[in-house]
Amino acid sequence: MTEIRAVLTRRIVDPFDLWPVGEPSHDPVVLSKRMSPLEVGTAMAIIAEYNKGDDRDDVDTLRFLAEEHLVAPGGLLARDTATGVEVEPGCCCGLEDWRDWYGIVDGTPPWLGHNPEHVVRIEDGVARFWSGTGDVDAPPVEISIDELSDLLAAVQQDLRDFLGLVGEWATPYGTALAADLVASLDRQLRINAPQGPD
Fold this sequence. Notes:
Largest sheet: 4 strands, antiparallel
Radius of gyration: 17 Å
Distance between the termini: 28 Å
Strand order of the largest sheet: 2-1-3-4
Number of strands: 7
Order of helices and strands: EEHHEEEEEHH
């Protein structure tokens, strides 16, 4: 079975002291309804660090995130649950481009970043993803094009759930600010638009 998850890659400069975050880790942060408040804070810190400008206090940083054009480092992670083989988004891949995966239906593979460069081949109704090792003899992650719509609908629901958690997490900083932050992330990550490519 194959699963696709929306993830943020960790790029927090230690120490991060604007709000509580989780322990340092190289693992991606999976966005879903199962996130704790600490994990939501970690996700928001990743976005804040990646889009960092001048030093700001926590409220000013959240206002910045609610108003500016943002890049969310990460993307979609594909994993074969039977073999454990997975393909993570590479460097410079952004979660804001997650809808590019709908292009697989038309034979257009999504860009998955670089360092490493992944290999994607689409043929006979199946998209095959190899991690950026250059070894196409290794087992790939396979996604049936017939199942792609359901898999991406699950990604969209995970992102909607994440938005709800962001709203709860940010409310102590101000109800209006929390609403603006949720609206900004929704718009920039293209979460609640109808299913399909833009």
